[in-house]
Amino acid sequence: MKFTIVSMITAAGLLVAGSALATDMPAVAKKNNCVACHAIDKKVVGPSWADVAKKYKGDAGAAAHLDEKISKGGKGVWGPMPMPPNPKITAEERKELVDFILGL
Ligand code: HEC
Questions:
Q1: CA-CA-CA-CA torsion for 85, 65, 102, 58, nearest 10 degrees?
Q2: Cα–Cα dist 57/47, whole Å
Q3: CA 60 vs CA 37, 57, 73, 84, 104: distances in Å
Q4: How many angstroms does the Cα of residue 24 sit away from the middle of ligand 1?
Q5: Which of the residue ranges 5-14, 15-24, 63-72, 77-86 would you say has the lowest mean pLDDT?
Q6: What gap in Å lies between CA 19 and CA 24, rounded to an integer?
Q7: Is 100 in the pocket of ligand 1 (CB under 6 A)?
Q8: Following DSSP, what letter does each residue of 36-86 receive, concatenated?
Q9: Domains of the chain
Q10: What is the pLDDT of residue 96?
Q11: Of all protein residues, whose CA lies closest to atom 30 belonging to ligand 1?
Q12: Whose CA is nearest to atom 15 of ligand 1?
């Protein structure tokens, strides 16, 4: 019995440690404030990026679509809430973000 409780606590501890070690938002997402509306694994204002990766898995046009979406914003893919445009973001930063998101 004692053993069971101890191993359960250990397992719970490992789960918590595991999620803390899970992928964090990249610096480029923090810098461009994507983190205000997005998280990797849960919906905030916008969809979770893991869901975005899942939705576009195997879609050859995904990178171009997402690049344009990050630059110009838009709505209607995930719901009525619009994603704002990011006129100042560079093409390089967009590529870094798209690669990161689709690689999740
Ligand atoms: C003000 C909140 C907000 C901010 C800031 C924001 N987003 Fe979004 N994002 C949204 C919403 C809302 C949607 C869903 C839009 C839709 O349904 O078409 C979305 C959708 C997306 C999608 C999926 C697009 C699609 O067509 O499937 C990606 C990728 C994305 N955002 C990336 C980013 C990145 C990268 C940044 C930072 C440069 C960012 N977002 C900043 C709210 C935001």
A1: 160
A2: 15
A3: 26, 9, 20, 24, 16
A4: 17
A5: 5-14
A6: 10
A7: no
A8: GTB-SSSBSSSPPHHHHHHHHTT-TTHHHHHHHHHHH-B-SSSSSSPBPP-
A9: 24-102 (1.10.760.10)
A10: 98
A11: 70
A12: 75
Q: Lowest-pLDDT range, 10-19, 34-43, 66-75, 88-97?
A: 10-19
Question: What atom of ligand 1 comes closest to residue 29's alpha carbon?
Answer: 37
CA 7 to ligand 1 centroid distance, Å:
41
Nearest CA to ligand 1 atom 43: 83
Distance CA 49, CA 69 (A): 14
**pLDDT tens sequence across 43-60:** 999 999 999 999 999 999
Distance of alpha carbon 40 from its chain centroid, rounded?
A: 3
User: Which residue owns the Cα nearest ligand 1 atom 2?
Assistant: 37
For residue 72, is pLDDT > 70? yes
